[in-house]
Amino acid sequence: MSVLAWVQNSPLTGLLLTLAAYRAALTLSRRYHGHPLANTVLMGAVMVIAVLLLLGMDFQQYMKGAGFIQFLLGPVTVALAIPLYNNLGRLRKSGLPILLAIIAGSAAGVLTAVCAGLLFDMPRSMVLSLAPRSATTPIAMGVAEVLGGIPALAATFVIVTGIIGAICAKPLIQLLRIHDDVVLGVATGVAAHGIGTARVFQLSETAGAFAGLAMGLTGLFTAILAPILVHYLML
Amino acid sequence: MIETFIWLLAYQFMGEVIARSLGWPVPGAVLGMLLLFLTLCARRGVPRALRDNIPRLMTHMSLLFIPAGVGILAFWPMLSAHPLSLPILLVVATLSTFIITALVLQLGLWWQKRRGPA
Question: Which of A9, A14, B7, B64 has its CA 20 to 30 A from that of A72?
Answer without folding.
Answer: A9
